[in-house]
Write a structure and sequence with these properties.
The complex is a heterodimer of chains A (210) and B (194).
Chain A (H helix, E strand, L loop, with lengths): L3 H19 L5 H13 L1 H18 L8 H13 L1 H9 L4 H15 L2 H13 L17 E5 L5 H10 L2 E5 L7 E5 L7 H8 L4 E6 L5
Antiparallel strand pairs in A: 1-3, 1-4, 2-3
Chain B lengths: L2 H18 L3 H20 L5 H18 L9 H20 L20 H14 L4 H12 L4 H8 L3 H18 L16
The chains are: A alpha+beta (210), B mainly alpha (194).
The structure holds zinc ion.
The site of zinc ion has 7 residues of chain A, from helix 1 and helix 3.
Chain lengths: 210, 194
């Protein structure tokens, strides 16, 4: 005969064992022990019935209709044309998220030729690259991520139009650092225009932390 | 892990390997294989089908991007569900306060073939789950629905096993107090019926 405290302990043990027995991940010994306890304990038996019904209910196919084919088509389209997606996200995600998305895209598709060309231009400039972390960036510097589909000529035109020059990049998140080529520091207006320019994935001011 | 689980994991690993080499057919197979699971899992977080699809695609997009970095510390399914969980939480933060478009809300839409018995079971479950926090609903789905172990759930939710145990315990206590006792009872009728 068992003392009430033992029964309490057994019930706690049975309570713990139920989910694993229900999902068939308990050992045979554990299952046998639970069955023995259930045979002699009304309270645990009723709890186990509730648990069984819970498992049954949870296992029903979900009832919110989501079209698998349409979803897959959209995902494949997103992989084929990642820039549209990034543009859509621009309005609602943070800089970090956007930068990370951009980094993934840039790495995935590669703007190798463009990057190499810009890099060599940057190294000829008076300024140093981002990799030289100790050198403070000039006031008004911006991070700009162009579309990977952007042609080199368009990028050049864009820089010329906005009177910008590349002084570094791409950094680890795929952003180029640009400044006004005439040395002016009023870039707020330029920033706004860049953001609405087709082919610019993102444009952000560089936070200067001396 | 059962033998079927081991087989499924081996298949998933093979698919990831092919995906890391840019194989879209492998992605399509993985997408279809996880769609049902992810839908149900995410339906515990939101009832909006548009948000569910968005999260599934965010999750599989990350899976596609990171397929080559999967090192196999866990089952593939644990890894993917973990990504879906984090994408789901992010989506909740983004869409939580948006006005809900009626078309996107599918609370009362059931497949036409859905038998009454299922409907009753769903109502019963919905009643219980409505009293739980999002994390408690997630734990219930992970354990009773997807069949994950405590250790798996801790990996998915990126929290200690003790926290998972506590969430499961409290969820079960709440469910027991909310859901009618069922010992020998016939299936519950809708309350509005005489
Ligand atoms: Zn007992």
């Amino acid at each position: 005969m068992k003392l009430p405290t033992d029964i309490g302990k057994d019930c706690a043990r049975a309570w713990d064992a139920m989910p694993w027995s229900l999902q068939n991940s308990a050992t045979r010994d554990q299952d046998e022990w639970l069955n023995q306890h259930l045979a002699q304990c009304e309270a645990c038996r009723s709890e186990f019935e509730l648990q069984s019904r819970l498992r049954l209910a949870i296992s029903l196919p979900q009832d919110v209709p989501v079209d698998v084919d349409a979803g897959l088509r959209r995902l494949l389209a997103r992989i084929d044309a990642p820039d549209t997606r990034a543009a859509r996200q621009r309005s609602r995600t943070s800089w970090v998220t956007r930068a990370l998305v951009a980094a993934v895209l840039v790495q995935a598709i590669g703007i190798g030729v463009l990057g190499a060309r810009l890099w060599s231009e940057a190294s000829q400039a008076d300024y140093r690259t981002l990799s030289q972390a100790s050198a403070p960036l000039p006031t008004g510097a911006m991070h700009v991520v162009p579309d990977d589909t952007m042609k080199l000529a368009d990028w050049d035109t864009l820089l010329h139009t906005f009177r910008l020059q590349v002084i570094g990049g791409p950094n680890e998140v795929g952003a180029y650092t640009v400044v006004a080529s005439d040395g002016s520091t009023s870039s707020r207006d330029t920033l706004q225009k860049l953001r609405t320019t087709h082919g610019i994935r993102l444009a952000e001011p560089v936070a200067n932390t001396p | 892990m059962t033998e079927a689980d081991i087989d499924a994991d081996a298949t998933d690993r093979m698919l990831l390997q092919r995906m890391s080499a840019g194989d879209r057919a492998a992605l399509a197979v993985l997408y279809r294989s996880y769609h049902g699971r992810l839908c149900r899992f995410l339906s515990r977080l939101t009832r909006r089908s548009d948000v569910i699809e968005e999260v599934i695609n965010d999750c599989l997009w990350i899976t596609w991007q990171k397929a080559g970095t999967f090192h196999g510390d866990s089952r593939v399914s644990t890894w993917i569900i973990g990504i879906a969980y984090r994408c789901g939480l992010k989506a909740l933060r983004q869409h939580g306060d948006e006005p809900v478009d009626d078309d996107a809300l599918s609370e009362d839409r059931f497949p036409a073939h859905c038998p009454d018995e299922d409907r009753e079971l769903r109502d019963w479950l919905a009643k219980g789950l409505s009293r739980l926090s999002a994390d408690q609903r997630v734990v219930i789905e992970l354990v009773y629905g997807l069949g994950h172990t405590l250790d798996d759930v801790a990996v998915i939710m990126q929290c200690p096993v003790g926290t998972v145990k506590a969430r499961l315990f409290h969820a079960r206590v709440k469910l027991r107090n909310t859901l009618p006792a069922l010992a020998g009872d016939p299936p519950i009728r809708k309350e509005s019926m005489p």
